[in-house]
Design brief:
The chain is α+β, with helices and mostly antiparallel strands. It has a single domain, classed as NinB fold (Orthogonal Bundle). Helices cover 49% and strands 12% of the residues. The protein is built from 6 helices and 5 strands, in the order E-E-H-H-H-E-E-H-H-H-E. Strand 3 and strand 4 form a beta hairpin. Helix 2 packs across helix 3, helix 2 runs parallel beside helix 4 and helix 2 packs across helix 5. It starts with 8 loop residues before the first strand and ends with a strand.
Length: 160
């Protein structure tokens, strides 16, 4: 699985409704019919989805506050660099090169992803100049809760 935002949908009245920004964009790009692969979200995937919705929210705040075109992908790359999620290598000439670590489902355990999301919450709170609670309230308002029970997801209410 690539190191990109998952397309997250939820079932509403027999239809799939996009939950995050990339899913909304993908839905708008559909002309006619398309093929969709439905998978249930496990705990690690749900936390990963929560992370990307959190980045959508923070990107909107940063756009408003800076007038710059922030998006979730740019924030993802920026967070990995700023929080040093990866390794620093040195070339023979002494130049430092940062190799970011993947945050895909296969690359991070649930415990690692939980720690990463917590670090990102703190950083985004500072960067956006808002309390963590305010960011998380907006993520929850968009229908995505990091702490939701597995039972809800095991009955097909949220897909990617």
């Amino acid at each position: 699985m690539p190191d990109t935002a998952p397309l997250i949908f939820e079932q509403v009245l027999g239809s799939l409704r996009p939950v995050n920004g990339p899913a909304t964009i993908a839905t708008k790009a559909v002309q006619g019919r398309c093929v969709v692969k439905i998978t249930k979200m496990n705990r690690n995937q749900r936390r990963r989805g929560f992370y990307w919705v959190m980045l959508d929210v923070a990107a909107e705040v940063l756009c408003d506050k800076t007038g710059r075109p922030w998006d979730a992908d740019l924030l993802h790359v920026t967070l990995k660099d700023a929080l040093r999620l990866g390794e620093t290598w040195t070339t023979p000439s002494g130049r430092k090169v940062f190799k970011p670590r993947s945050t895909s489902d296969r690359a991070m355990t649930e415990a690692e992803r939980s720690a990463w999301v917590e670090r990102c919450k703190s950083a985004l709170s500072v960067w956006c100049e808002v309390e963590i609670v305010q960011l998380m309230d907006e993520v929850r308002a968009r229908g995505f809760n990091e702490e939701e029970s597995n039972d809800k997801h095991n009955h097909g209410s949220r897909h990617r």
